[in-house]
Amino acid sequence: MVNGDGAHEHTEETDSKQDGNGEADGGEESNEQEVIVIQDTGFTVKIQAPGTEPFDLQVSPQEMVQEIHQVLMDREDTCHRTCFSLQLDGNVLDNFAELKSIEGLQEGSVLKVVEEPYTVREARIHVRHIRDLLKSLDPSDAYNGVDCNSLSFLSIFTDGDLGETGKRKKKGNEMEQIDCTPPEHILPGSKERPLVPLQPQNKDWKPMQCLKVLTMSGWNPPPGNRKMHGDLMYLYIVTVEERHVSVTASTRGFYLNQSTTYTFNPKPANPSFLSHSLVELLSQISPAFKKNFTALQKKRVQRHPFERIATPFQVYSWTAPQVDHAMDCVRAEDAYTSRLGYEEHIPGQTRDWNEELQTTRELPRKNLPERLLRERAIFKVHSDFAAAATRGAMAVIDGNVMAINPGEETRMQMFIWNNIFFSLGFDVRDHYRELGGDAAAHAAPTNDLNGVRAYSGVDVEGLYTLGTVVVDYRGYRVTAQSIIPGILEREQEQSVIYGSIDFGKTVVSHGKYLELLEKTSRPLKVQRHSVLNEKNDTVELCSSVECKGIIGNDGRHYILDLLRTFPPDLNFLPVDGVELSPECQRLGFPASVCCCLTLLLFLVFLFRYLLFMKMAALQLMQHKANRDSNKTDTPAITETSETLTESKGPLEGKELEESIPGLAQAKELAETLVAEDGSSIDPKSREVVLNACKAVGSISDTAFDIRFNPDIFSPGVRFPEESADDIQKQKQLLKDAAAFLVSCQVPTLVKDCLDHSALPMDGASLTEALHQRGINVRYLGTVLEFMEKTPAKAQLEHTSRLGVELSALSAAVSHFLNCFLSSFPDAVAHLPPDELVSRRKNRKRRNRVPGGGDNTAWASLTPSELWKNIASEAQKKFQSKLILIKEYNFDSRHKPAFTEEDILNIFPVVKHVNPKATDAFHFFQSGQAKVQQGFLKEGCELINEALNLFNNVYGAMHVEICSCLRLLARLNYILGDHPEALSNQQKAVLMSERVLGIEHPNTIQEYMHLALYCFANNQLSTALKLLYRARYLMLLICGEDHPEMALLDSNIGLVLHGVMEYDLSLRFLENALTINTKYHGPRSLKVALSHHLVARVYESKAEFRSALQHEKEGYTIYKNQMGEAHEKTKESSEYLKYLTQQAVALQRTMNEIYKNGSNASIMPLKFTAPSMATILDQLNIINGIIFIPLSPKDLENLKAEVQRRQQLQELGKGEEPAEDQKDGLCWMSHKACGPESRAV
């Protein structure tokens, strides 16, 4: 779980902080005892290793012995040891035992590090580890996207760890150190967008050369007679001093032998320098190695742990510097063996992925410790499987894996590698002929993966899904799946006992599968339904017919082919004789294998539930009113599902609630009705519920229950006549869902973009914004069309400009990029003709690449053809016309911008299941709820608890841990603990860079938050560097014309104002004012604040006329928007008076000088340099943090109000009592905390 001492320190740190905070929220399902189990206090043991002084190590009872091994292999003084055991009183400790289970291990125990004999496997691990230590500061693995290494550049801008520098820096001399001038390319209005600063070179990365060569010797493997002498393998080493040596790895350790490049003499040299560790041997024979290796390890351990820990999934970088290719024995070995024999250091065997994936799901989950252990195991196996599947898919496309059906056409071939089954995204058996052929087959794997995600999320005991990863690489789509035991030994027809293998012609069912799938039907909103098979018999299903049930040889019930888990999207599936809503008809979408997003179905469900409640409540109120006036007729509900889709969306519900008195009470009554089974309800009330159920399309007459039939409109699926009514209802429900998406969800997204609760910056964040609202990316054209018709469309420009990412062997890619981006009109394939010829000849001799052949059609592609293809593809996929906003001008129109040398590598795009830490997430949500209620300290404790549990499941690196750290930092900051806020936010930035990417929109946000906390800690130059970095990244991904740029420029302008760089400050603040005016409208309060900030800088420059002009603008906005009596308007009015006085005083002084020359008696003028406290207050305000000062009287009132609420709660629902007093009041805006937390 933990990788290296950095992570170890991190877990200790959170553990020690958590002591005593074990009490969970009273309403939390996980009870206190469960949490306290996790909080077992740590203890200290003494470690005694050969050649070093004994040292103390803080450990926790839940840790395994193996984790201490990891710590020792990462510590500076013991890092060169890999083959050792830990012994307590002479007894060897089991690596996989938990510390609490070891008898006699207690506070102060001495653990001895005992060197053990090597095996071939241990010797290989040792050499690999030494190689990793030698390359520990080298970023090449991160650039190449291997071994879950990824880039982080924060330390370059903070000059190391912020915590330490914070203590070193003195307040007084901070001002002199600051160089405020930003690079030219990030100034407002600059048109330059250089790529080199994206990856600044760290001076630490200059290689400290310890060895020239470390590689496997050509004399490997040892001959039989030498094996009996204990020889395991031979190494060839060249030291920095140019000494060439041959080293034997034996069971006793490493020693010099007498072999040379051409003569084999395995006898020990004299002296042989026998050492248990290779580092000890090399330190004896090379002084340069000893000196540089020591310095290298010092630098390595000084780096922040989060810069070194592996990420759970690989993150790739799209740019990299050209670096010299270096000799690397470990990489060479990996390439030759395909890492099969040494997969995760398991010798000579491959992992049974299916068994591992399913066994982890079967682990017990009764209490919190069991659930944590289970989730940790599931997460670890999934991340390992995703990595192995990605390597295998790349090997398949690169032609390194033999097909299991080599005689068939390449597109039909299937592969097995490392116990994983690989298939290509082609329509090999005409399955998808009517749905779009290869295009449909290309889309199907992602739908299947979404189905796997859905069923894995529901996590029903006894129902199993396959490990599934979808990889796009070099233009191919590969599906990687774990293998059901026994599936390859029998025909599919014999295996499938549930579902259909021919799109619904023959259908079978099975009682056990129906029972298991029934448990998933409510959470997934899937309706149990009947279909007809080829003999016209009725077959009952609880999924789509496509879903197949197979019992493996291991007796487990597997489901696969889950591509139709969710019903079809009717907007993209025109069906004969089906009338769609006018909006959908107008859009005229094409046919495809398009399914609704899970979230859309859930939103439809919630929307219908709201309508159901309203209708039941209104009926009950009418019923009550009628009864009161002795009338007995109950008006029938006349609204039908058609009227539901015409409604204006969720807002209407709110308005209705406000407009009808007593509706809330009626809704409560309705809720009690639908919660019961209907038996004890009086007939009138039952009739009300029945009518409401009918009107909203509920499948039950006594309670609200909406589910969708995934087989509706599926070609080839037939339904029994007796269910005709139900089928009709289901068809209507799907039509309503399609209309709901177009008429409600798309306008909601546009509204959210207008009021800035959604602020997409790039293609990825736009996709996320769409998905969060249940909208597929294929609706992009619809969204753009809706934006065009919006009156405030200028305020949506930042969204409509975002692109959908396009991905396309170095010559082909460089040619593609030239056609795509270059201004050069006659882009010709940049490849010498002789190389084309030789490539053709070579390809015939090699293993055929899928879809291979002599395919050089790309070489004749022209820019106009490419853009025509892209435009037609965009029209087909997104119903959107492409507009060329900017013709990139790379270099010149006379030569192509890219050559094949510019293309360094091609990386895969990988989609996989993301297992969740459910308990940790509940704690996180409870913490957020507390923060929203204003109980910040209690919220902080719960978030800390969540962080602890996230670490337990995910290890130290994960995107959810990043969110946790961000919120913790914000809470620390508000509660006045600025150093702790800085520490947590630094971790959040590092983690965001590592797990999301160095230019991800979240990373930019994290940099901005960190800059604020640096400023609050008096680290002004660091704050500026961080803000400049954030601005550079934002310019790179979305340009200057974006609402978020206004916030960033306001931050930069304020900090520059604080360090008295007034002219620079004005450039940024005036740019922020322009952007705010464009995106928020000239009458917005944000614009008023912008005017005020600009006025303050002009005041500091003594340009009072300009200051007055801006402050007047701000005052007018405040007066119009908030009235003259509002505090803000009064503040602005006071400031205007002050500025006027200053302007008059200045004018008098100038007049005096003109009049009396040098004899003038000059009144001293007040030129106010801004105080840091004032600047910090302004920074807090623009970043959405407003501290509300409370007088003693206010505090008394607040206390009384909280106690009153407490009594009400106790009387009402007996919920947990509120705190005696909130932790000092503060308001955090929605923007400030990120989308996941809005706090008052």
Automatic annotation (TrEMBL):
Residues 1-20 have a biased composition (Basic and acidic residues). It is found in: Cytoplasm; Cytoplasmic granule. It comes from Oreochromis niloticus. mRNA-binding protein involved in proper cytoplasmic distribution of mitochondria. Specifically binds mRNAs of nuclear-encoded mitochondrial proteins in the cytoplasm and regulates transport or translation of these transcripts close to mitochondria, playing a role in mitochondrial biogenesis. It comes from the Eukaryota. InterPro entries: CLU-central, CLU_dom, CLU_N, CLU_prot, GSKIP_dom_sf, TPR-like_helical_dom_sf. Keywords: Cytoplasm, Repeat, RNA-binding, TPR repeat. Residues 1-31, 167-191, 628-653 are annotated as: Disordered. One of its GO terms (cellular component) is cytoplasm. Belongs to the CLU family. The keyword RNA-binding applies. PANTHER family: CLUSTERED MITOCHONDRIA PROTEIN HOMOLOG, EUKARYOTIC TRANSLATION INITIATION FACTOR 3 SUBUNIT EIF-3. The gene is CLUH. This is Clustered mitochondria protein homolog. Residues 331-573 form the Clu domain.
